[in-house]
Write a structure and sequence with these properties.
The chain has one domain: Aminopeptidase. 31% of the residues lie in helices and 30% in strands. The protein contains 7 helices and 9 strands. By secondary structure, it is α+β, with helices and mostly antiparallel strands. Strands 7-8-6-5-4-3-2-1-9 form a 9-stranded mixed β-sheet, with helices on both faces. GO terms for molecular function: protein N-terminal-serine acetyltransferase activity; protein-N-terminal-alanine acetyltransferase activity. Keywords: Transferase. This is GCN5 family acetyltransferase. Pfam families: Acetyltransf_3 (PF13302).
Length: 210
């Protein structure tokens, strides 16, 4: 068995290639993030990591991804896929599972460099990991969240079959904001005309499920 079989995992959608994060890819991601992820007047993340970039130049980003990679177990795992478009890193699509063997549930999250937004790439990479979860890991439920006022994100979620599943209040910059929790049952997933291609799963599946 390979010492780190996740390095062989690859998801391919019509325009994107998604691979679990590695150090070379993380350096690319830092550059993408420094070029801009969102309007500085807003904070789309529950942890305001983009506020720290001008001061630490990405050190915190690297440490975060290293930490998540190091903590992967069957009981609690997160895979941060680096999404590449035309060979270049453009953002991250994450998928995580807690007690996945029993619950068969995943959580997803993502971010995309600002200059790559608005072209459907964010939706495509989310669909890719949803198909990976439902069709290849036998997940039954996928969960996500979005700000109450993020109408674009919530419209995309609705088109994919998500339904609201309550709210939660957070304060990433010290002011109260409300997030909508979202739930997608495998049977309700509105699929595109294409299927994700998955390579290398057999080598690493024992790391994340049983």
């Amino acid at each position: 068995m390979d010492a780190w079989p996740l390095r062989k995992l690859v998801l391919r959608t019509p325009r994107l290639e998604l691979r679990p994060d590695d150090d070379e890819g993380l350096f690319e991601l830092v550059d993408v993030a420094l070029a801009g992820v969102h309007d500085p007047a807003e904070m789309p993340f529950t942890v305001p990591w983009t506020d720290w970039l001008p001061d630490d130049h990405g050190v915190g980003m690297m440490q975060f991804f290293w930490g998540q990679r190091a903590k992967i177990t069957r009981e609690d795992w997160t895979i941060n896929f680096i999404a590449r478009f035309e060979g270049k890193a453009i953002g991250v699509q994450s998928i995580s599972g807690h007690d996945f063997g029993a619950l068969r549930e995943v959580h997803t999250g993502s971010w995309l460099g600002q200059k790559f937004q608005g072209s459907g790439l964010g939706t495509e990479m989310r669909v890719g990991v949803l198909q990976f979860a439902f069709d290849h890991l036998d997940a039954r439920v996928a969960r996500s969240a979005a700000w109450l006022g993020n109408h674009a994100s919530n419209r995309v979620s609705a088109k994919l079959g998500y339904v609201p599943d309550g709210t939660i209040s957070v304060a990433p910059r010290g002011a109260r904001l409300e997030q909508v929790r979202l739930r997608l049952n495998a049977s309700d997933f509105v699929r595109p005309e294409w299927d994700v291609s998955v390579e290398g799963l057999a080598e690493c599946v024992q790391l994340i499920t049983n």
